[in-house]
């Protein structure tokens, strides 16, 4: 059975996460990191649902 590969694999998602979320923020605490990352995941998942 053939395998179909796409660009939206783990490396693409990790790169986008680092570029769109981690590189734009300086975290003062774990709670700050957790809040920001949680908000990003909600945004990211909602964005994919619209496609």
Describe the structure.
The chain has a domain at 27-51. Helices cover 63% and strands 0% of the residues. It is globular, with a radius of gyration of 14 Å. The protein contains two helices and no strands. The protein starts with 9 loop residues before the first helix and ends with a helix. The model has no long low-confidence stretch (mean pLDDT 79). It has 51 residues and is an all-alpha fold.
List the helices and strands and how they pair.
Layout: H1 10-20, H2 30-50
Number of helices: 2
Shape verdict: globular
Cα(first) to Cα(last) distance is 27 Å
Task: Classify the helix fraction into a percent range.
Answer: 55-70%
Main sheet attributes: strand count, strand direction, barrel closure: none
The average pLDDT value, as a whole number, equals 79
- Computed over alpha carbons, the radius of gyration is 14 Å
Order of helices and strands: HH
Number of strands: 0
Low-confidence segments, given as residue ranges, are: none
Q: Return the structural class.
A: mainly alpha
Percent of sequence in beta strands: under 5%
